[in-house]
Amino acid sequence: MESVPVTTASLTIRDDSEVIIRPVRDSDTEALGRVHAQCWHETYDHLISAAAFENLSPRRMAELWSGWIAQGDDRKLVAAVNDSGIIGFAGAGPRRDVDAPRERELYFIYLAAVYQGTGTGQALLDAVLADEPAYLWVASDNPRAHSFYRRNGFAADGAEHTEVFLGEDLHEVRLVR
After folding, report:
1. Mean pLDDT of 83-90
2. pLDDT digit string, tens, across residues 119-155
């Protein structure tokens, strides 16, 4: 599948501040690591134990980002940036599952909780998928994410699995559009 370049876009959110959606850069790894760790705490604290989160470090997340950035042009990785720095990110690319229902997979989309509901999450999703057919895995107990994906045409297809997340089991369901 040929890669479509990610363009830069901007939006104004509820406090009249500007958010830029742009491709992830090599120099972003540390900031992405910090925001990724923050978002995991905000998203999964009710699903994963505090002990598991003690092993989560922004530095380790930055190392993971270095690997993701190096994976190639067939992936779209974008960051949402405002005056405070990176506040969220999204990534999509070729399917990873052998039995995938679509060619493209939304790997992740995370946004700091304070910016949820501002349109930034929608801008991130649009930047990596637009209206392409795709699939994703999401924690079964993440109602906010389910609502967001439903608004964007995704529906559960009945597939589910247990993913090991920070050493603990996390039940996920697959959504497809």
Report:
1. 96
2. 999 999 999 999 999 999 999 999 999 999 999 999 9
Look at the alpha carbons of 162, 134, 122, 58 in this order and tell me if their dihedral is positive or negative: positive
In angstroms, the CA 176 to CA 154 distance is 5
Closest among 35, 60, 59, 67 to 167, alpha carbons compared: 60
- Across the chain, where does the E strand assignment appear? 9-12, 18-23, 76-82, 85-94, 104-111, 135-139, 155-165, 168-176
Q: Tell me if the pTM is above 0.70.
A: yes
Q: Answer yes or no: are the C-beta atoms of 103 and 139 closer than 8 Å.
A: no
Alpha-carbon distance of 7 to 23, in angstroms, equals 7
Quick check: 92 and 76 in contact, CB under 8 A? yes
Q: How many CA atoms lie within 13 A of 99 on its CB side?
A: 6
- Quickly name the fold that domain 9-176 has: Aminopeptidase (3.40.630)
100 close to 94: Cβ distance less than 8 angstroms: no
Question: How do the domains of the chain map onto residue ranges?
Answer: 9-176
